[in-house]
Structure formats: structure tokens, C-alpha cells
Amino acid sequence: MGIAMDGLTDAELVALARAGRREACGELIARYQGYVYAHAHGVVGRWTDAQDVTQEVFIRALGTLGQVRDGQCFAGWLRRVTHSVALNWVRKQQIGGRRVLQGTEAVPEAYARLSATPQQLLSGRESAQQVLTAIASLPPKYREPLEMYYLGGMSHRRLADFLDIPLGTAQALVHRARQRLRAALPRQLMHAEVDAMVTEAIGEHQLPGDFSHKVLENVPRVAYGVEPRKSDGDVQRCPEDDPFPSCLRACFEFMGHQSSHELISGHGGQWWLNHTYVSIMGTSGAAFRLLWREGDWFGGNVGLPYIADDPAEPVRRACDAMGRACSFIFKPAFVEGSTDTITLCDDAVEYRRRIVESIGEHGRPVIACGVVGPPEPCIITGYDDDGDILIGWSFFQGMPDFAAGLGFEPGGYFRKADWGSDLAGIVLLGDEQERPALRDVYRVALRWGVELARRARVRTFHAGHAAYTAWVDAIQRDDELPANNMALLRERHMAHDDAVCTVAEARWYAMHFVKRAALELREAAQNLQAAAACFEVEHDLMWKVWGLVGGMGRSGEQIRRFADPVTRRQIVPLIMTARDKDVEATGHIERALELTD
């Protein structure tokens, strides 16, 4: 049987909240949100802004409960947090050129129309306007306790705790505030019942019912395959099937990074090429990678974090090139390789705090690994119930195997409860930083691409050019691909097909990245164009590999064709030719870099 939270003391709730009990956090919010809201309003002067401050206060407070030495003093500590957050908010607005007038916008301009007729004054709407005008006219010493009292549920005891004053003092403040309010009211309202009148008047400014719900609207969707661009009729965008680069691209675009598009022709139609995605594929190294785990048909060969000894390096390189700081928090069980740049954490409360802080305080989406489907990246665009429910986009949200238990927002975002066990880690996007010169971006990325191609091993993986050979060796072992074991064939065909997809898409974007580099590194343009031509051949070779099994896909018939030794013997020279082209492209890039030194 659950504990009745509303009957517990603040100290008991704080102890439970520290232990990870979300219902205790919810009770603390419900108990004090009105007091926080009123105090924030007293500092920032606008009800709508006070709502934002209140949300930020609880994000910060619930994430730092360890600072509360005595849980019974939680309310007074919360008031100090509120005051600090509200003052910081005011400073930020002033730095940004926005003028903040404390207390002057307690009511809309229409509420201050004192020339209304007696009949209007006695109407409900005008009465509320006059009450709010009268409250706004009170000195802060009385106005704030009065607003706290009514917004907080008319409790003298909690008002006293929040202000850290004796109960008798809190009662006296509210009593005197009522007296002053009555004296400030228009004559027609002086004999009305104050409690009912004030409650009705400030009702319009109560915190909304979805106070714990925050969603960043219009974060671009990520999904496998292609979707029509609404503004371009039948023209489709190019596939963006690499989850980390695609999630980064969507987040960067939402946060204001400009993204240009180029109309290109290919595969029987016209396509829009997103240059931000091209850049992320190139700068992260995704465009130049290939992995094959030693002695294994591993289903995660395509994972971007595996291409470097430091799993965070590819994403960090892409963020550096875009001029954006980033940080990484992951569960230890999901981290292979160096952990020097990754914070290891198994605490679901800490993940919730950091996600809510990024979205609620900074307005930045979060890239999370897992949540929906396998531990692949998705975008967290919002939360509900103070983070108990996460909202966002996932590549897997439309797949029946992974959609069970999901809800959906009207605009298509998924809603996922009980997400803690499915989370592998998060990438937090930080402040903007100085963006490198474009020439330097290309040179650094191309050197990284050469390093990835030339490196024969990364941890337990064959890498770069050596991965092509390991891949070919695997698909020639007939004893590992028994025609009568469909489950095993499906698993091993997936590993093979992931490699085909990686080379097909990655080298296609490598081609475009290197072509754009040639425009900036003009002295090396000839070598870079030659490298781009090699990558284009690799891309086309992978389409021939798909053709041998009946096309792109993973149907039963395609898997059976792949299992046929004759088919696989035809696939092998195509892969080895692709390897030779990759070696040739790497040589062209190396010579180009020599020309740019």
C-alpha cells in the first residue's frame, strides 16, 4: 500500500524525494508552488514570466535537495532558491535589453481603467479588475504575503514556513494586507467578502494545470527512410538513416543553426540535400567509417560511438565544428572504451533532473540513447509529470516491436513512461562557442577521416579498410550460414546488410562532404574531387550488392538469397572493389592535405 503523501511533514517528504520517490517530489511541488509563484511574481513583475521562473525553481530545487540540511526547513530554503532564481532571471532579461518593472504588470492594462461606470464596477469582470488593481497598489511588504496566502491555498502555517517567520507574524501580515486592500478598493466593493473576492480575482493567474508539462514545439522529426518536404511538392529529402548525425542535425536546426539545402538528382528523381547533415556526417567521422567485430556477427557494428577509443569523440567533434558545447552522461554498462570524457551515472533521478533542466530551463532538446527501441539515439523534446513521462522523436516509434506502451502527442511526438530501465545515457547540448574557420573544419575532419580509414582496429573491432576484409571473410564461412536456420540467418544477414547500408549511405555523404571541402580548399580541389569520385563508386557498388539479393530490404526471400553460397561468392568481389576504392580515396585525401599544409 502506498504512503499518503499529503499527511507527511516536509522533512519526511524531503527524505523520500532524496530516495527517488517521485510522488514525494510531486507533493512538495503541490504544497509550495503557489508560494514560489507569488514570490517570483513579486520579483519579476509579470505573471507569465513568474510561471517560467517557478518551473525553473523546482527544476533546480528538486535536483539539489542534498543541500537541505534540515528537511523541516525546506520551505525557507525553497524561498531563498526562488529569490536567487528570480533575480538571475531579471538580470538575464536586462542584459538582453528587456526592461523589467517589478510589480507594474501585476494586472493587464485593461484592469487599470478606473473611469468605468458604477454598473461596470459592480459586474463580475470589472470587480476582478478593480481587486487586482488594488492588490497591485499595496506595498510589497503586504502584497506578496497576500498573493502567497491566496495562491498557496490560504494556509497561514505554510506561509510562515515559506517566509521563515513566526506563525503569528504571518497571520498579522495577512490581516493587515486585507485591511489595506479593503481601503484601496472602490467604494462599491468595500463591503464585499474579501476572501471570495480575492480568490476569484487572482484565479485568472493561477498556475496552469499542466504546470509540470513542458514541450519544445517544432523540433524536426527524425525517422528511417525519406519523407516528402511539405513545401516542395513531390521532391523528397535525402535519406538520413544514421541516428546520431540525424538527431544532432535536428537539434542544431531547432536551436537556430542555419541549414542550407541543395537540389540534386539521383536514384530516378530529385532530392533535397541537407548540408548540415552532410557536415555532421563528415566532421563526426560517420561518413568515413566501417567496423566489423572480430569473430562475431555483431548487430551493433554500425554504432557511431564504436569508431573511436573515446565513445564521445565523434559527437564531440561534430559539436565543436558547429560551435556548440556538449557533455555526456551514460550508464556504466553501456560504455565501452575510455570514460575520461563521459560522466558515469546509474541514478535515474539525476538523468531526470538533467533532462528537465535542459528542456525547461535552457530550451534545448536532449539526445538520449535508448528510451524507445534499442539503445540508439532519439531526441527528447519535452516531459510531463515533472519528467516521469518523456516526450520526443525516435527512429523506432512507429515499429510494432517497439511501439507497445507508447502514447503520442497530437503533433506526433512519442510519450514514454517508465523509461529509466530503457535509457543508456544522454548527450546534453550546451552553450554556443566560437565556431572554427570553415577551412580548419574541413582540414580537421579530413585528417580524422584518414585516421579512421587507416586504423586497422578499434578496441574489439576490425576498422577502416581492414573491416572490408573481415566482412568478406565472415560471409564466406558457409558453416555459419546454415540454410535451415532462419532465425540465425536473419541475425547474420542483418549484420551484413548493416555494413552494406553503412557503406552505401556513409560514402555517399562522404562524396558530398569532400566535394564541399574542395570548394574551400581550392589548392587541393583536384585531389578531393578524385576522392569524391571513388566514394561515389563505392556507393553504387553497394546498390549492386543489394541487387544480387533482390533489392534493399530484409524479407525472408532476400535472406534466403543471401544464404545461397553462389550469391555470396558474387557479393565478395563487389565488397573488395569497394575496399580498393576506399583505399584510393584515402590516398587522394592524404595528398590533398599535404597541399593545404
Describe the secondary-structure layout.
Layout: H1 10-18, H2 22-44, H3 47-63, H4 74-95, H5 118-122, H6 124-137, H7 140-151, H8 156-163, H9 167-184, H10 194-202, E1 214-215, E2 236-237, H11 243-254, E3 261-266, E4 269-274, H12 275-284, E5 291-293, H13 313-322, E6 324-330, E7 343-344, H14 348-361, E8 366-370, E9 377-384, E10 389-393, H15 400-403, E11 407-408, E12 414-417, E13 423-432, H16 438-454, E14 457-458, E15 461-463, H17 464-475, H18 486-520, H19 525-548, H20 556-563, H21 565-596
Parallel strand pairs: 2-4, 6-7
Antiparallel strand pairs: 1-9, 3-4, 5-15, 6-13, 8-9, 8-13, 9-10, 10-12, 11-12, 14-15
Helix pairs in contact: 1-2, 2-3, 2-4, 2-7, 3-4, 3-14, 4-8, 6-10, 7-9, 8-9, 11-12, 11-13, 12-13, 12-18, 16-21, 17-21, 18-19, 18-20, 19-21
Radius of gyration: 30 Å
- Tell me the total number of β-strands: 15
Task: Give unreliable regions as ranges.
Answer: 97-122
Chain-averaged pLDDT: 86
Tell me what the structure shows.
The protein is an alpha+beta fold and 597 residues long. It has three domains: 5-204, RNA polymerase sigma factor, region 2, helix turn helix motif (Rna Polymerase Sigma Factor, Chain: A); 258-299 and 437-597, no CATH class; 324-433, no CATH class. Helix content is 53%, strand content 11%. It is built from 21 helices and 15 strands. Strands 1, 6, 7, 8, 9, 10, 11, 12 and 13 form a nine-stranded mixed beta sheet that branches. Strands 2-4-3 form a three-stranded mixed beta sheet. The chain starts with 9 loop residues before the first helix and ends with a helix.
